[in-house]
């Protein structure tokens, strides 16, 4: 069989051209769309009225890499606490922009608590939850008016669990007039996309700068999300926020989010992502940030932290030494990144291999910046270390983990220092 006339292509399709929206706080600017890298964001699950507890979680999310953090603003107490949260973050040196998530009473809270409206860097508006009947247009307009007054961008976030019923009824009536009516699922898709775009256009008619609008159409099913966002991307040029409404808990949530977002990102669709994981009891909220980063990094769209390559193990690796070492190194690298990213430019592109036996160990280690091949079952109790493709040393004894971690740190300091980067 003859080979192809062209080299085998790799990588995602070209990013869809979008408007450029900026979310800012002080000197910190986070760009969404306009060719900017796909941004990772998250949301707190604390009671916003607890200003200290909320600020601490925001700090943890920002330290993990969340570039924007959304908080619930659902009551007068929560709205009153927002300026205190911002002040506490400032005292802790955390400049991450805050997004206020509003439903039902957002128009009242934004008008009654101007300090809250100013402290937030962006508003999330769900057009299905701003009011019913005649009140809907008025209350939506009030929220847009506040956003214009304080020069804040907005995300118009449509959700299939709270879709504007009047709009849905209109779409259903239009469908009934077709010679061949669409199935109910297609009608729902059309209602979601239409709601997002019509409300964005309405916001512009009310005076909002079109470059301050971000859209989302949240659903919970993987295929539903892919279908809706493909259509939304084709019909408008607003920046798009990707994410399942309820991804789920544990591996289910991670797999569902990865499956849905990876397809869209590969097609060049999406400008910011949020992984809506349900935390396990006592679980760490920052996990959703890490998953979002890892989706983008494994797809080659961004680099956040050095990647650790480790084999899955087999009958040759009955010892758990390589598993323990891989876990320790990966944890160590992620914990160091908040400091390293400002001191050692480029370190996020480093690859580290921790392999379990002689089959693929030396080969994989040679492809990494730093690699170690630990002894498998029955192999000589020695662990060769490879640096930039060359074997440099062999570690032995019961301090291999500590010695290898020191080698990794020495490599970072010698290869990614500011002096070297300059």
TrEMBL record:
Give the matching InterPro entries: Dihydropteroate_synth-like_sf (IPR011005), IspG_bac (IPR016425), IspG_bac-typ (IPR004588), IspG_C (IPR058579), IspG_TIM (IPR058578), NO2/SO3_Rdtase_4Fe4S_sf (IPR045854)
Span of the signal peptide: none
Does Oxidoreductase show up as a keyword for this record? yes
User: Which residues are in the IspG C-terminal domain?
Assistant: 308-408
Q: In which pathway does it act?
A: Isoprenoid biosynthesis; isopentenyl diphosphate biosynthesis via DXP pathway; isopentenyl diphosphate from 1-deoxy-D-xylulose 5-phosphate: step 5/6
Which cofactors, if any, are listed as required? [4Fe-4S] cluster
Task: Using the record's annotation, list all stretches that form the IspG TIM-barrel domain.
Answer: 29-292
Question: Which keywords describe this protein according to UniProt?
Answer: 4Fe-4S, Iron, Iron-sulfur, Isoprene biosynthesis, Metal-binding, Oxidoreductase
Q: Which domain of life is it from?
A: Bacteria
Q: Which reaction does it catalyse?
A: (2E)-4-hydroxy-3-methylbut-2-enyl diphosphate + oxidized [flavodoxin] + H2O + 2 H(+) = 2-C-methyl-D-erythritol 2,4-cyclic diphosphate + reduced [flavodoxin]
What does the record's cofactor remark say about binding? Binds 1 [4Fe-4S] cluster.
Where [4Fe-4S] cluster binds, per the record, is at: 311, 314, 357, 364
Entry GO MF terms: 4-hydroxy-3-methylbut-2-en-1-yl diphosphate synthase activity (ferredoxin)
One Pfam family hit = GcpE
Which EC number applies? 1.17.7.3
Q: Entry's NCBIfam families?
A: ispG_gcpE (TIGR00612), PRK00366.1 (NF001540)
Q: Which family is it part of?
A: Belongs to the IspG family.
As for what it does, the entry says: Converts 2C-methyl-D-erythritol 2,4-cyclodiphosphate (ME-2,4cPP) into 1-hydroxy-2-methyl-2-(E)-butenyl 4-diphosphate.
Q: This chain belongs to which protein, by name?
A: 4-hydroxy-3-methylbut-2-en-1-yl diphosphate synthase (flavodoxin)
What organism is recorded for this protein? Herbaspirillum rhizosphaerae
Gene encoding the protein: ispG
